[in-house]
């Protein structure tokens, strides 16, 4: 790299930024709650300036912004790049805000059974994981509100699939009939009941049926109140794993420690090994993307 | 029958009652919003008296109450009767409030994969359907907040399974990210998009994955806003049908006209024929149950 990088991960509910040296070291990180939902139309330059205006003043700085800032509801739309897509395709599809200085990274789209799927931000994490782990192929799982299962071959994302896992958990936890008997706080993870939920999800074959078991087990005093949230979490994550069909022998997890720990347990129960990465994947992905822009 | 019957269907959110003549004719029906959630502890006799005290005064009257009034949260618990169970088992398990005069009908329970399932009120509708259609066997589907699929053989409920279909629809409709783009009112059913949702549920293999298609199709303008609620309804009902595995060639639907119409369309799309019954099944079921009490 011949230029320093300002890497920005600008999502729906938060904004994170890092200043990255020529040699790849993360020199400084900042974050705020100024997710795109808090930014009024036209307000994006000012919020970026508040966050890291001092960094942007450096004459050689390149700023790459990934995440929902590039969506219709964001700063400007960087149209989804179709799969298969590698670094090259992503780099060519950047939406330049200030030519040569500030760009939005597009998301990816693919199609299954005549239905489109999309992601925005996760693609950078996947490319970062490829770079960190020196891989060209693999299955990458990014758990969250909308979990992504991403298939990479020859350094390019071939296809991916979204599961609304975190959102279904929150809906059932907060708004369903199950919420009436669940304790107000989740408490620490109860591994035995979490794995019981993972296994029942496989047997039940659909979360519509499996979810009712959280109620009936409680009704017959077969599930302690303190373990109900863990059991429900196991049902929902177990359903996500069931939905993949035959699981690969190994996947790479990218996400928070709390989530990757649950997925490691659940996948292990079903015979799949894991490696886990955290937020370092985002910075590494943006840096790798910046490198491709310098290629002749 | 040698006694007139006061049939009461006392659910969570409503109370319905019918006075039934010796020959089986429904002489009068009443309903109120006094579901069990509105009744304070000890208040059940007074609410029943308000609703049909004049009927209860008849010297020969027998009053049978089905539904959640027989649950722990209701008037008194009539413990779940284990499957397989026919009229005889149900009649012997009545919880008598006033011996020989007023009784609560128990619900049923069964067990799948080490997990219990329960119903309360639907069993009476199933027995009513058997009587109305002169059947001893069949698959009975009771769509609703918690849909029930009931397998009957030799006049007895062998097993059943609950799907939280109506509740999942409401959660996604009202509280999920999909709610942000859905019009505030469902509007009339759009059959083409409803059936598109039913088919996609089969292809997707899990509602966790299928539900995201309601968002992405809208994002790419492939689903008109006025059809989004119908599509989502098709996804959720389609998931319930997928969860059953191989569908039988024919089922009996018991429920409201609006719901049985949707299930008829969805089941027809997957090659299963239907017959539909409404609230008459409840009265017929309670009458048939009353008849068994008179057998020597």
Question: In brief, what are we looking at here?
Answer:
Two copies of one chain form a homodimer. Chain A is α/β, with parallel strands linked by helices and 296 residues long. Helix content of chain A is 38%, strand content 25%.
Give the topology.
The structure is a homodimer of 296-residue chains.
Chain A: E1 5-10, E2 15-20, E3 26-32, H1 44-56, E4 62-66, E5 81-82, H2 87-92, E6 95-98, E7 102-104, E8 108-112, E9 115-119, H3 122-133, E10 138-142, E11 147-153, E12 156-163, H4 165-175, H5 191-204, H6 207-210, H7 212-219, H8 228-243, E13 250-254, H9 257-269, E14 273-277, H10 280-294
Helix pairs in contact in A: 3-10, 4-8, 5-8, 5-9, 8-9
Notes on the protein architecture:
Chain A is 38% helix and 25% strand. The first copy, chain A, has ten helices and 14 strands. A six-stranded mixed beta sheet of chain A has the order 3-2-1-4-7-6, sandwiched between helices. In chain A, helix 4 (165-175) packs antiparallel against helix 8 (228-243) and helix 8 packs across helix 9. The longest helix of chain A is centred in the C-terminal third of the chain and has 16 residues, at 228-243. The two termini of chain A are 13 Å apart. The A-B interface holds A 112-113, 115-118, 146, 161-165, 167-168, 171-172, 174-177, 200, 203-209, 211-213, 216-217, 219-220, 222, 236, 239-240, 242-243, 245 and B 112-113, 115-118, 146, 161-165, 167-168, 171-172, 174-177, 200, 203-209, 211-213, 216-217, 219-220, 222, 236, 239-240, 242-243, 245.
